[in-house]
Amino acid sequence: MPRPRRCRRVWFQPNVSFFRPVGLFRLEEVILTIDEFEAMRLKDLLGLEQEKAAKKMNISQPTFSRLIESARRKVADAIVNGRAIKIQGGDYKMVGRGRMGGFGLGPSGECVCPSCGYRMAHQRGVPCFQCKCPKCGTLMTRAR
């Protein structure tokens, strides 16, 4: 009997869940799971090392490696073969953040960089997840 699968921690819910080539409407879809999306975000967008990204997702480094390889293969298939990408499903648990990356804490407060810990005053009307850290370029999140 195989060991039960660990639930992967996800820190960011995508704002857009469907991509398709322009001008094409009836397409085959490639399903990219939320945990594969998170692996790509951590490794390819934020530039984290695989070991650090795996710890963040609460999985082993070899599992993370398989996850990122699967995600990249699916995205490449969609681009090369003109398929739509649908982001849904997977074995994951959202950690501490809502869909928009914040807590609805009102107009005041701070934005914090999840990579280097840099803090800056929250700018009213601009979600923290739309701001980049001036030190390392990582997308910011709302501080509690």
Examine the coordinates and then state which fold CATH places here, giving the name of the CATH topology of the largest domain. Arc Repressor Mutant, subunit A
Separate helix tally = 3
Can you tell me the overall shape? globular
Given as residue ranges, the uncertain stretches (5+ residues, pLDDT < 50) are 98-105
Number of strands: 8
Our estimate of the beta-strand percent is 15-25%
Write the H/E string, N to C.
EEEHHHEEEEE
Distance N to C terminus: 42 Å
Mean pLDDT: 83
Q: In CATH terms, what is the architecture of the largest domain?
A: Orthogonal Bundle
CATH class of the largest domain: Mainly Alpha
Question: At the fourth CATH level, what is the homologous superfamily of the largest domain?
Answer: Winged helix-like DNA-binding domain superfamily/Winged helix DNA-binding domain
Biggest sheet architecture: 3 strands, mixed
Helical content class: 25-40%
**How many discrete structural domains?**
2
Radius of gyration: 17 Å
Pairing-aware structural class of the strands and helices? alpha/beta
Q: Strand order, main sheet: write it out.
A: 2-4-3
